[in-house]
Write a structure and sequence with these properties.
about 600 residues, alpha+beta, Aldehyde Ferredoxin Oxidoreductase,  A, domain 1, Aldehyde Ferredoxin Oxidoreductase Protein, subunit A, domain 2, Aldehyde Ferredoxin Oxidoreductase Protein, subunit A, domain 3, 25 helices, about 40% helix
Length: about 600
């Protein structure tokens, strides 16, 4: 039925390992992936509260902060569109202080299921470095003292040599050094990137999880599944983005598109237009540095980029990426238009294990702080931290991973950095999470999504850029607030479904809930309609919001940086625009059944969520 039927619980404090069954009732309500993991976090919080341990008492780097790796019913099923992903969650992010959530492609998700498990729950903390090995259903904790201190690349290679055909999810020096936006890397260049889940893994002294196995998940109704996958994959091939644009230029095709819309944040969001953006575009990357395309497990879109810089100070003879968000964060946000420096910085983020969005955004905030004279020269130890300086960008990336020099301040993330140097308004973040590469002064719906996203400043919580810029599934005016509340809610709910299924969000450019419903029905044997799936997504989003409320967040935190609300866009296609957030937010809360950012009891009862 698409599931392996098992959850693995690993307690690092006492070394115990046990298996428990997937609860079919819970799976029907939350699917898997993000949904099931959110449910498990909520249950853990309730258990802790009964013991007198409340959310505010949970240390992100402490024993009560579980780390959950979760697949869904689609993961690892051959033929299901782009089904090579997994989701990682933790109750308390070290970056934001509330729920942590990240997602990654590659092949680790499928290999986790091939090893026999749908979900892995990591509890407690190890006293010494360990890694978890799972081979054909047998799980064992092993000594990782020889791996501690090694990069993600070296760790992956060593464990692949030991185990054979496998997939490795690991942390690098950044996770070990508790960089607050450290990520978990699999296949060397695929990242569960956001909210600092790699730092949580590092705090637990868990260096890696390696999975290998011969089991294979299968759909219940194979004939129906074949029919539905053919329909879905045909739609993906015929769609202009998934069938042509992404395979040809990767996600970086968006650099020129978003810049022309006046919404490509430049120099820490001081403006949304860069006259030199083409120097770092997907077209330029493909022309000068691309070796070949690369696909995640089971993917037909193949948006991944294999790249190289043949010579010079930034030489890299084999790398992957950078993708759109990384090019923007490490390049446009910092004013760096040297694509070779950006490729090198991106490579270091993969090698050391750091989220490129938070890394680049934090450096950009530091550059503006320096520009305003807020950072004394002695803090920088001779580094010329000016906008556009590619050498400073690359140096600050590795210094952050090792918390060396000024890197120890960058390792805190932009919110803490900006507060430390007296300008909290220069952190371009929401709920402590740095926003991605779309300025909402020119794309209003994504501003509402940023503000109301549960994990913080996030575009993949609900990608309203699809209708606002790409015209998918229909074109809407990006410069109006009208109707954006409904779009944001629909995208947020549907995204929860995709992240719980678990497969790639890029499928949503071509497929909707009406396409997912027959696919999942064939896989699970549970007959589901599009409305059923949207209700599941709404349930997940509301339960996640209940967890946020437990950490003390409410409507006051559903906001944007002052720059976006008060400073009109100075140039470009969105010139003169600001975000009228309160207007959209009031309509959004009404549609959600929330009051001041909190689900009402009536809404929770309707969704079957028990407090």
């Amino acid at each position: 039925m698409g599931y392996m039927g098992k959850i693995l619980r690993v307690n690092l404090s006492d070394g115990s390992i046990k298996t428990e069954p997937i609860d079919e009732g819970v799976a029907k309500l939350y699917l898997g992936g993000k949904g099931y993991a959110t449910y498990l976090i909520y249950q853990k919080l309730k258990e802790l509260e009964k013991k007198g341990i409340f959310p505010a008492d949970i240390d992100p780097f402490g024993e009560y902060n579980d780390l959950i790796f979760a697949t869904g019913p689609a993961t690892g099923i051959a033929g299901f569109p782009e089904s090579g992903r997994y989701h990682v969650m933790t109750a308390r992010s070290p970056l934001t202080g509330s729920i942590g959530s990240a997602n990654s492609g590659g092949k680790f998700g499928p290999y986790m299921k091939f090893a026999g498990y749908d979900i892995i729950v990591i509890e407690g903390m190890a006293a010494e470095p360990v890694y978890l090995e799972i081979v054909d259903g047998v799980a064992e904790l092993k000594d990782a003292s020889d791996l501690w201190g090694k990069t993600t690349f070296d760790t992956t290679k060593i464990l692949e040599e030991r185990v054979g055909r496998c997939s490795v999810a690991c942390i690098g020096p950044a996770g070990e050094n508790l960089v607050r936006f450290a990520c978990i890397i699999n296949e060397e260049h695929r990242a569960a990137g956001r909210t600092g889940v790699g730092a949580v893994m590092g705090s637990k002294m868990l260096k890696a999880i390696v999975c290998s196995g011969s089991e294979r998940p299968k759909p219940v109704d194979e004939e129906r599944f074949k029919e539905e996958t053919k329909k879905a994959n045909d739609k993906i091939k015929q769609n202009p983005l998934t069938g042509e644009g992404l395979p040809k230029f990767g996600t970086a095709i968006l650099v020129n598109v978003i810049n022309n819309a006046g919404s490509l944040p430049y120099k820490n969001w001081q403006t949304g237009y860069n006259p030199d953006a083409d120097k770092i575009s997907g077209e330029t990357l493909a022309e000068k540095y691309l070796i070949k395309n690369h696909a995640c497990w089971g993917c037909t879109i193949t948006c991944g980029r294999v790249t190289k810089v043949e010579k010079g100070a930034y030489q890299i003879l084999y790398s992957e990426g950078p993708e759109y968000e990384s090019i923007w964060a490490l390049g446009n946000a910092t004013g760096v238009t040297d694509l070779e420096a950006i490729i090198k910085a991106n490579h270091f983020c993969d090698e050391f294990g750091m989220d490129t969005i938070s890394m680049g955004s934090t450096i950009a905030a530091a550059m503006e702080l320096k520009e305003k004279g807020a950072i004394p020269d002695e803090y920088l130890q001779g580094v010329d931290l000016e906008f556009g300086n590619g050498a400073a960008l690359v140096e600050m990336v590795w210094k952050t991973a090792y918390t060396a020099g000024f890197g120890k301040y960058l390792a805190l993330g932009s919110k803490r950095l900006a507060e430390m140097f007296g300008h909290p308004e220069l952190s371009m973040s929401v709920k402590g999470l740095e926003m991605p590469a779309y300025d909402p002064r020119g794309i209003k719906g994504i501003g509402l999504t940023y503000a109301t996203a549960n994990r913080g400043g996030c575009h993949v919580t609900g990608y309203t850029v699809a209708p606002e810029i790409a015209g998918l599934p229909e074109k809407v005016d990006p410069l109006t607030e009208e109707g954006k509340a409904a779009w944001a809610k629909a995208f947020q709910d549907f995204t929860c479904v995709v992240n719980s299924t678990v497969n790639c969000l890029f499928t949503t450019f071509a497929l909707g809930a009406e396409d997912f419903a027959p696919l999942l029905s064939a896989v699970t044997g549970w007959e589901m309609s599009a409305d059923d799936l949207m209700k599941i997504g709404e349930r997940i989003y509301n339960l996640e919001r209940v967890i946020l409320n437990k950490f003390g967040l409410d409507g006051r935190d559903d906001t944007l940086p002052p720059r976006l609300l008060k400073e009109p866009m100075p140039e470009g296609a969105a010139k003169g625009q600001v975000v009228d957030l309160e207007k959209m937010k009031a309509e959004y809360y009404q549609l959600r059944g929330w009051e001041n950012g909190r689900p009402t009891k009536e809404k929770l009862k309707e969704l079957g969520i028990e407090l």
